[in-house]
From TrEMBL:
Keyword Lyase (UniProt): yes
Active site: 325 (proton donor)
CDD domains per record: PLPDE_III_ODC
Family: Belongs to the Orn/Lys/Arg decarboxylase class-II family.
GO cellular component term of the entry, any: cytoplasm
An individual GO BP term: putrescine biosynthetic process from arginine, via ornithine
Cofactor: pyridoxal 5'-phosphate
Keyword Lyase: yes
N6-(pyridoxal phosphate)lysine modifications at: 48
Identification of the protein by name: ornithine decarboxylase
Organism: Aureimonas pseudogalii
Gene3D superfamilies hit by this protein: Alanine racemase, Lyase, Ornithine Decarboxylase, Chain A, domain 1
């Protein structure tokens, strides 16, 4: 939601064009909530959610580690004050030269999900620690992840055996239950799979020590979501259920849950029209759309809260669209969005809880529109 600090910033600075404003106080509150909810788990912030230097510096100062998807993100985290031992190269799809570059920077923890990736890491980062990503179904997530990442648990065993054979340190397993995961029990089945991989490898003389439980922690959009404490209780219970008293080292990778509710996008109504005299729905066009940072409205998966200066007036369902010359740039049409009937050209609106996956999804210059500007306060 828009904090008073964000509202004051917009009112006094009057930034031109669409922009994201992030309140660092909210980010810090979220970090402390995760630390309290899962005190025995290391927090590895998912840099891809929002890599603003101010956010990374704050989190580094608070003791966070970082989940990075590229060498550029690793360099961002280290520039912000993180040491290499607080960085995980969590992308399972890496160029060999990027593995080598990360290794040269001192990074020693890499994600894999197949023997081919293990062989790359063994050549470019000899002796490194690796964890194997296991497939999960993502049920209950509003932004589910595909089969692009991970392998079935039986294959994970083979992948880690191969890693050990090639001189790497087979360290553990990882999974991701899907982004914006609203089911606190979603980690249970994945932890059961992880425990099975641990047991199967123990039989082959390989002792795993790490479970990377991924992200998935949600931000409140139009519906309430469970608290960090609720997730912590459920996850800890699942860990005890499947690992007993021999709990492994654990990692969580919050991204959206860390920064989503810390940011608000200021946007402007460019046009309000209808397609025919009989059209039931107005079309409301904003100066930001899918290509300006709202990519997660694809398939209307994420429905952001929107506030307007005319809230309180009579509402009517609208089709909401962006400004670009691309017919895919429609945010909400299958389920029209209720907005005040009095909303008009030039009105400013606030798209709330947009701190995650907006600046990073913003196109460089599609149709000549500049990338989404960001202010961190």
């Amino acid at each position: 939601m828009a904090t008073q600090r964000i509202l004051d910033f917009i009112a006094t600075r009057r930034p031109n064009g669409p922009c994201l404003v992030v309140d660092l106080d909210v980010v810090e509150d979220n970090f402390q909530a995760f630390r309290k909810a899962l005190p025995d788990s290391s927090i590895y912030y998912a840099v891809k959610a929002n890599p603003a230097p101010e956010i990374l510096r704050l989190l580094a100062s608070l003791g966070s580690s970082f989940d990075c998807a590229s060498v550029a993100e690793i360099e961002m985290a280290m520039d912000a004050g993180a040491t290499a031992d607080r960085v995980s190269f969590g992308n399972t799809i890496k160029k060999e030269r990027d593995v080598a570059a990360a290794h040269a920077l001192g990074v020693s923890l890499f994600a894999v999900d197949c023997v081919e990736e293990v062989e790359k890491v063994a050549r470019a980062a000899p002796g490194a620690r690796v964890f194997c990503r296991v497939l999960t179904d993502g049920a209950g997530a509003e932004w589910p992840l595909s089969r692009k990442f991970g392998c079935v648990p039986a294959m994970a065993v083979d992948v880690l055996v191969h890693a050990q054979r090639l001189g790497l340190a087979a360290t553990g397993v990882s999974f991701h239950v899907g982004s914006q995961q609203c089911d606190t029990e979603a980690w249970d089945a994945a932890l059961a799979d992880a425990a099975k991989v641990f047991a199967d490898l123990a039989e082959q003389g390989i002792t795993l020590t790490l479970v990377n439980m991924g992200g998935g922690f949600p931000t409140r959009y139009l519906k309430d979501v469970p608290t960090a404490q609720a997730y912590g209780r459920s996850i800890f219970a699942a860990l005890r259920r499947h690992f007993g008293n021999r709990l492994p080292e654990t990692i969580i990778e919050p991204g959206r849950g860390m920064v989503g509710d810390a940011g608000v996008i200021k946007a402007e109504v460019v046009l309000v029209s209808r397609k025919s005299a009989a059209d039931e729905n107005r079309w409301v066009y904003l100066d930001i759309g899918k290509f300006g940072g709202l990519a997660e409205t694809m398939d209307e998966a994420i429905r952001y809260p929107i506030t307007t200066p005319r809230d309180g007036d009579r509402m009517e369902p609208c089709v909401l669209a962006g400004p670009t010359c691309d017919s895919a740039d429609v945010l909400y049409e299958k389920k029209p969005y209720p907005l005040p009937i009095s909303l008009t050209i030039g009105d400013e609106v606030l798209i709330e809880n947009t701190g995650a996956y907006t600046t990073t999804y913003s196109a460089v210059a599609f149709n000549g529109f500049e990338p989404l500007r960001s202010y961190v306060i």
